[in-house]
Design goal:
Number of helices: 6
Strand order of the largest sheet: 6-5-4-1-2-3-7
Structural class: alpha/beta
Distance between the termini: 38 Å
Number of strands: 7
Strand content: 15-25%
Helix content: 25-40%
Order of helices and strands: HEHHHEHEEEEHE
Length: about 170
């Protein structure tokens, strides 16, 4: 584990080939204003509400970096994950990410790390840490080849079983 945690934008800017993200929680950032608007019944335009993310992904994809994301989810979907599902097509996929969904019951025999993570170019892992209620509490960055291998292997196993966003229908 490194003592300094580079920003996500810096890690992505240094990427040449790939960035992969594995999400395994059923809820994140419960106070997100966009999520709260969605809960109130407002229609959400992802690129309008998350313009920095949309631009960052589009710019990164344009440089030739492949961004893939797998969301391991409990079914029926938790409220926050239903929100993510509703905005994924217009935000993540529209920006150029490839997104797959994997029902948790289909991941029971996969060896998965204890935290969500990003792997950048198969050399750096950035773990995200969240409190039990979904509030973000910090990141750790690891460059240990064994940790990178563990996370890359876990991601690829989940990716192989996951269902493409356009084909996934929540239970």
């Amino acid at each position: 584990m490194s003592p300094e945690v580079p920003s996500f934008n810096d890690l992505l800017a240094e990427c040449d080939e790939s960035a992969v993200h594995l999400e395994m929680r059923d809820g994140y950032t419960p106070g997100d204003p966009v999520y709260l608007d969605w809960r109130a019944g407002l229609r959400i335009d992802g690129p309008e509400r998350y313009p920095e993310w949309f631009a960052l992904v589009r710019t990164t994809i344009a440089r030739g970096v492949r961004i893939r994301r797998v969301r391991i989810v409990s079914e029926p979907l938790a409220d926050f994950i239903r929100f993510e599902y509703d905005v994924t097509g217009g935000l993540n996929v529209a920006a150029g990410e490839q997104v797959r969904w994997l029902p948790r019951r289909q991941a029971s025999d996969l060896a998965l790390p204890g935290n969500d993570f990003w792997v950048f170019d198969g050399r750096i892992v950035r773990f995200g840490h969240f409190a039990g209620d979904g509030h973000f509490v910090g990141h750790d960055v690891w460059e240990d080849p064994d940790v990178v291998k563990l996370c890359t292997s876990a991601f690829e196993a989940a990716w192989e079983r996951g269902v493409d966003h356009d084909d996934y229908r929540p239970a």
